[in-house]
TrEMBL record, chain A:
The keyword Transmembrane applies. This is Alpha-1,3-glucosyltransferase. Coiled coil: none annotated. Pathway: Protein modification; protein glycosylation. Residues 726-739 have a biased composition (Low complexity). Belongs to the ALG6/ALG8 glucosyltransferase family. Keywords: Endoplasmic reticulum, Glycosyltransferase, Membrane, Transferase, Transmembrane, Transmembrane helix. Residues 68-94, 115-124 have a biased composition (Polar residues).
TrEMBL record, chain B:
It is a multi-pass membrane protein. GO terms for molecular function: dolichyl pyrophosphate Glc1Man9GlcNAc2 alpha-1,3-glucosyltransferase activity. This is Alpha-1,3-glucosyltransferase. Keywords: Endoplasmic reticulum, Glycosyltransferase, Membrane, Transferase, Transmembrane, Transmembrane helix. It is found in: Endoplasmic reticulum membrane. GO terms for cellular component: endoplasmic reticulum membrane. The keyword Nucleotide-binding does not apply.
């Protein structure tokens, strides 16, 4: 705030100076403060935020195998030793980075030398509240403390949202989600574990996996320490006192603070490791104030942030090459809410592809370890339902026969499992913006087809839906495999594994396909596809396509939950949070003049926003006709579904592109330069996704074997000795950079 | 708006001519960051719509009904509700203005007999009027930045004023219109800063006719305007200035009180405005000097009862202690305080301050004297309400970045003062919000300002003082924990021992008493600090504001 007035638009000259400063002094800085991330000494004269270059550097600096010509597999210990060092995950953010391609050139270096791009940059830097805030805190020298401030501010916001109503407020006899969660706390603290999944199923029987049950138990225990009446068995049903509401709200805020916030912090520090602190903090803020999550968790009342937090944690752990811990985190996510299964294809295929990539020896070992860890983690989660804590078999009265002494014996552990996966419910319940509900307007699925067929159809479509993500992941893993190639095996040693960059797209793809095509989807479930999209767009620059998709889908996701939120009495909070969010990230679909729309996503965005606004106005002015009481809800579905569908298609496109860029250019290490560059040409010209470029460049550089060998040795020695870079290495990097450029088509 | 135009022209920094006399925000060059603050804070306030609101909400709704449905002659006589109109006429006119849209939105709002009406429409309407009228505060805060000696610092101070937790707690949750009223006060101060003393005086007269509590600081205005506007530096009476100011102020009062004067209702009006039937302390002791005296009395009583010393004890006083929350405060040991005593002490302190102001009538001196006048009245006044602490904190904020001593006083008084407002909100959800918000505000102000005013401690005594003050500030964390945990623990012990429920009432009063006394220590200490700085160092201890004449 020091210079509110003059801080916003630094003059081009000062901007320029700062950049130069970075290049000249960075090496020293890194040596001086030990905690600063490791930056290799071979620097090209480009600004910090431009990640193409940083990636190139990383590729040169890979630790070489013991002998360049050795066909010996790299031992897993060496891989993990590297992966543990904090600087290594850095290279990953480059995969997420999307450079704006305004001037038609996607090759980073020329852009940065043009003065006009330097001039145009600052104008777009500060177009959002969050950016201005981050900038101000950095100028105050509060890089890290500001995050604590932001966390506290988010808690304030959560409690302010919590002042409002919640799901099922004042609607006896069943109430809503709030009462369900409270009831679980009540029953878990009063009943033995074995009865958790069997007690009075008609009144909000527990139907979430055991971790939710344990969490409820803990919350209930603490709550009844404060006031036992809140969770008295039976008599507390439907309790709606002021203090019990505050306690329940606090459990969500605290669970969120314990799981989601650290996970997001970790994500911003690992995946965006090479980005500037500002971008990291900005991404952190963007993830923290996601309006959809805030409205559902702190308004409607649920604990989705815990489940999402565990998944983000596992993704961050993967980026740190801590695959086993990541797998455990994902099991926890699954154990909290079975909904995390939406991510399972992506996570599973990533781990499998990694095993594939590493080859039968190392990969196989990793596979076995992963399998054992996962099974163990699940076993621990379900431990109370196995002997000696519970009998192996339980019996129940069968209800369909006349003879009263008929009993069925089954495994006790099936109690929770049968509750978790309810196939007995319909194709969809409320109006939800997915394929089935939207097409139901035309085709009455439930009349037309038998439930069994519908289950199969939805299963099949879901499978088809997430197959592109899985397949692209597997094929990238296969093509990047190192165990057959007798070249230097560069991919093996590069940690983390390059296919990691595919993971967010695959997560988006699989969760969206579940959302669009699977069985029994709720409108709240849109939070799941939203999460990987937030991961992708949180670090993206505002001009990029990813950012546009992220902002659009967030808005539409919140909009698609409008009928639910309206029913909950959260209309005020809905509008406030949407407005605040778009202001905070600086998103305004109407900012661009209509005629200058450049991309499909902008066009989609502007039309969807107009449609949504019109629908809101109509709903305000008119009551729905008595013949179609659900008219506005159906219109809402019809507006939202196409956006989600397009996002799904976009995710497939991204998966394929990234996968191609990853695997297609390497082939075997001995391939000639001609084939890759032609492929590169098509990738560069086809996609505006900057994501392919770092990898592309890396592979292209890889073809200059002679150069690389020398560079590697240079880089290696530098990284060991941490000496100041020599002028020779700089000129060297420039030379090979230019050579890399020359292989790209003009 | 002629006044404002000339004011801006006479500021230190040169501004383009086109800048003057533009009231439309487009011409104000509002920076995106300023929009951010406005938007974020407004959205937060709107989120607080469903929050708890006190009886003041019904008070103001009732005033809407009175002014809308009764003729002006009945306004100060109506007793349909127990919340009779007891603000000066301008505020009544203001309510009349607000009642016009209200009657269109929901006619039940202005129905006189529709007592305790709190449907969504009236909540949304009244809360929005608070937010909208508070924009005056925001506009004035912005104007403070334009033409400030150090705009960067003034930015932070202005932001801290607009985002002050006092306004959030009292206006947006508890429900009052302080933001608007302090907007007028700050406007008047801004005019004084810009050298337009006539406008400053008029605005203050207007403010007095909105809410008469601002009489606390009227002496400072009177002396300042008399010395620096009506008299030349050499002491010559400036007839023209004097007459224009006198006429303007009288005009304002006639506009306000005239109708009631004609109807002969002035005695009735005054009896509404100044009810002298109340006790020394409010139900919850405002953390001022009398809170300390009362606490001392309670401690002495306990001591005497224990040691059975031979000292006369006022029986009335013992009953007063056991009553706790309600009724008058009557001392058991210490001689009782009468209104005349409080007035004597107040006037004695104020005259010291005013004498100094008379000698040195600069803007900065005026600002300090203004703060101190409010401070004295708050500390020693009769039946002071804890909300009146804003009268100290808001002018003090303007001095915050002056020098280290002012800044520390500001921090101490703000922390203690804002904490003393916490008991206004006793519902659990709002309690969390008030604590979080106040903490965030304090962090923001502290980190932004502390570096600017940092001074190296000159001697060991400074270091010790610094330590003690820090320990005192840390104590608030534990005080908050105590206040939060006490009801839970006492409820649990009540469950355990059901029989011993007789002491409950006095125990329920304990957190309030502890809060009041602890805050009073800080507020009194802040007063001593500020008095010391003003009387000893004000002329030598130069900061940014001293450049303004």
């Amino acid at each position: 705030m020091a210079d509110f007035a003059d801080a916003s638009t630094p003059s081009p000259s000062s901007f320029h100076k700062r950049k130069i400063h970075i290049h000249t002094s960075q090496a020293n800085q890194d040596i001086n403060n030990g905690e600063a991330p490791f930056t290799p000494e071979i620097l090209a004269p480009t600004p910090q935020r431009h990640l193409l270059e940083s990636h190139v550097r990383q590729s040169w600096l890979r630790t070489p195998p013991l002998s360049p010509v050795s066909s010996r597999a790299i031992s897993p210990t060496s891989t993990r030793a590297i992966s543990r060092s904090p600087q290594q995950p850095k290279s990953f953010s480059s995969f997420l980075d999307h450079e704006p391609t305004e001037h038609g050139t996607a090759h980073g270096i020329p852009r940065m030398h043009s003065t006009e791009s330097l001039n145009s940059r600052p104008k777009t830097v500060e177009n959002s509240t969050a950016r201005r805030f981050v900038r101000w805190t950095h100028r105050q020298g509060q890089r890290n403390w500001s995050l604590l401030f932001v966390c506290l501010a988010s808690h304030l916001l959560k409690y302010c949202i919590g002042l409002g109503s919640y799901s099922g407020h004042g609607t006896p006899p069943m109430y809503g989600d709030y009462e369900a969660q409270r009831h679980w706390m009540e029953l878990t603290i009063h009943l033995p574990t074995r009865q958790w999944y069997t007690y009075d199923l008609q009144y909000w029987g527990l139907d979430y996996p055991p971790l939710t049950a344990y969490h409820s138990w803990l919350c209930g225990l603490i709550g009844s320490l404060i006031n036992p009446e809140w969770f008295a068995l039976k008599s507390s049903r439907g309790i709606e006192t002021e203090s019990s509401k505050v306690f329940m709200r606090s459990t969500v805020v605290i669970s969120d603070a314990l799981v989601y916030i650290p996970a997001v912090f970790m994500f911003s520090r690992t995946w965006l490791g090479t980005r500037s602190k500002r971008t990291q903090n900005l991404a952190f803020i963007a993830m923290l104030f996601n309006p959809a999550l805030l409205l559902i968790d702190f308004g409607h009342f649920q604990y989705n942030s815990v489940m999402l937090g565990f998944t983000i944690l596992s993704v961050s752990l993967f980026a740190m090459s801590q695959d086993l811990l990541g797998a455990i985190a994902f099991v926890l996510s699954l154990g909290f809410k079975q909904m995390a299964l939406y991510y399972a294809p992506a996570i599973g295929s990533y781990l499998l592809a990694k095993c594939l990539l590493l080859g039968p020896t190392i990969g196989g070992r990793l596979f076995i370890r992963l399998a054992i860890t996962t099974i163990l983690a699940f076993t621990v989660l379900f431990l109370p339902f196995f002997p000696p804590f519970a009998p192996l078999f339980s019996t129940t009265q069968c209800d369909h026969t006349d003879s009263s002494d008929c009993t069925i014996t089954y495994l006790t552990v099936l109690d929770p499992i049968s509750r978790i996966f309810p196939f007995a419910r319909g194709l969809f319940e409320d109006k939800v913006a997915n394929f089935w509900c939207a097409s139901n307007v035309l085709i009455k699925w439930r009349v037309w087809a038998a439930p069994n067929l519908l289950i199969k159809a939805s299963g099949g479509l879901t499978l088809l839906g997430f197959l592109p993500g899985v397949l692209s992941m597997m094929s990238a893993g296969w093509r990047l495999r190192t165990w057959q190639s007798n070249s230097s095996g560069e991919s093996t040693t590069s940690t983390p594994i390059p296919i990691l960059s595919l993971l967010p797209y695959a997560l988006l793809n699989s969760s969206l396909s579940f959302f669009l095509f699977s069985f029994q989807v709720h409108e709240k479930t849109i939070l799941l596809p939203l999460m990987p999209l937030m991961l992708l767009s949180s670090g993206a620059v505002p001009e990029s396509t990813t950012f546009a998709w992220g902002a659009l889908v967030t808005n539409v996701a919140v909009f698609s939950m409008w009928p639910l939120l309206k029913r909950d009495g959260l209309g005020l909070q809905y509008f406030i949070l949407l407005g605040a969010w778009n202001r905070a990230i600086g998103y305004n679909p109407f900012k661009e003049p209509v005629l200058s729309l450049k991309s499909f996503v902008q066009l989609l965005s502007i039309s969807v926003h107009i449609a949504a606004a019109v629908l809101h106005i109509l709903e305000l002015l008119f009551d729905p006709p008595s013949r179609y009481p659900d008219l506005f809800t159906v219109l809402n579905v019809l507006i939202s579904t196409p956006v989600f569908f397009c996002t799904w298609l976009w995710s497939i496109k991204c998966c394929i592109e990234v996968s191609w860029a990853l695997g297609g250019l390497t082939g075997s290490g001995t391939s000639s330069g001609a084939r890759p560059s032609s492929r590169a040409a098509s990738v560069v010209s086809a996609g505006d996704e900057g994501v392919v470029l770092p990898n592309l460049r890396e592979k292209l550089d890889g073809n200059h074997k002679g150069d690389r060998a020398r560079t590697v040795s240079l880089g290696f020695s530098h990284s060991k000795q941490r000496t100041r870079r020599t002028s020779s290495s700089v000129s060297f990097s420039r030379a090979s950079g230019v050579r890399a450029m020359s292989t790209e088509p003009s | 708006m002629v006044a404002e135009a000339t004011g801006v022209q006479s500021t230190v920094q040169e501004k383009p001519k086109t800048y003057t006399a533009n009231l439309w925000p487009q011409n104000w060059n509002i920076h995106p960051t300023e929009w951010d603050i406005l938007i974020v804070s407004t959205l937060l306030k709107v989120l607080l719509f469903p929050a708890y609101h006190s009886t003041d909400f019904e008070v103001h709704r009732n005033w809407l009904a009175i002014t809308h449905s009764l003729p002006i002659s009945q306004w100060y006589y109506d007793t349909t509700s127990e919340w009779t109109l007891d603000y000066p006429p301008f505020f009544a006119f203001f309510e009349k203005l607000l009642s016009i849209p209200a009657s269109f939105i929901d006619p039940k709002i202005v129905d006189l007999n529709n007592l305790n009406y709190d449907s969504w429409s009236v909540v949304a309407y009244q809360r929005s009027t608070v937010i909208i009228t508070e924009l005056l505060l925001g506009a004035v805060a912005l104007k403070f930045v334009r033409g400030a000696v150090d705009p960067a610092t003034q930015h932070i101070i202005s932001a801290s004023l607009f985002l002050h937790p006092g306004f959030l707690i009292i206006d947006h949750i508890h429900f009052q219109y302080n933001g608007f009223l302090f907007g007028i006060l700050l406007w008047s101060i801004l005019m004084a800063r810009n050298g337009n003393k006539l406008a400053s005086g008029i605005l203050f007269a207007v403010l007095l006719n909105f809410k008469h509590i601002y009489m606390y600081i009227a002496p400072a205005y009177f002396i300042y305007l008399l010395r620096s506007f009506c008299l030349s530096p050499s002491g010559q009476l400036q007839i023209k200035n004097f007459l224009s100011l006198a006429n303007a102020v009288i005009g304002v009062f006639i506009a306000s009180l005239g109708p009631f004067l004609l109807m002969g209702q002035i005695p009735q009006l005054l009896s509404r405005l100044f009810p002298f039937t109340r006790g020394l302390n409010h139900a919850y002791w405002a953390p001022n000097a009398w809170a300390l005296v009362t606490a001392l009395d309670r401690v002495l009583l306990k001591y005497i009862q224990r040691s059975s010393a031979n000292i006369a004890i006022n029986e009335e006083g013992i009953r007063s202690t056991s009553r706790g929350l309600v009724g008058d405060t009557v001392f058991a040991v210490i001689p009782n305080v009468k209104p005349i005593h409080t007035f004597t002490i107040t006037i004695a302190f104020q005259s010291v301050i005013l004498f100094k102001l008379w000698r040195n009538p600069t803007y900065k001196s005026f600002l300090t004297a203004l703060t101190l006048c409010g401070y004295v009245s708050y500390l020693f006044g009769w039946h002071v309400h804890e909300k009146a602490v804003l009268l100290v904190l808001i002018p003090l904020s303007l001095l915050a970045a002056e020098r280290q001593a002012y800044f520390r006083t500001f921090i101490l008084a703000s922390v203690a003062g804002i904490f003393s407002l916490f008991p206004l909100l006793f519902t659990p959800a709002e309690s969390i919000i008030k604590v979080l918000y106040s903490f965030l505000w304090l962090t923001f102000v502290y980190t932004a300002l502390s570096k600017r005013v940092y001074e190296f401690p000159k001697s060991l005594s400074y270091v010790i003082l610094d330590m003690v003050e820090k320990i005192y500030l840390t104590g608030f964390v534990f005080l908050q924990l105590f206040v939060m945990l006490f009801p839970i623990l006492s409820a649990r012990s009540k469950h355990a021992v059901e029989e011993i429920a007789s002491t409950d009432d006095s125990m329920a009063f304990l957190p309030l008493m502890v809060t009041s006394v602890y805050c009073a220590v800080g507020i009194v200490w802040g007063f001593i600090r500020l008095m010391f700085v003003y009387l000893n160092e004000e002329t030598t201890y130069q900061g940014q504001l001293s450049t303004i004449q």
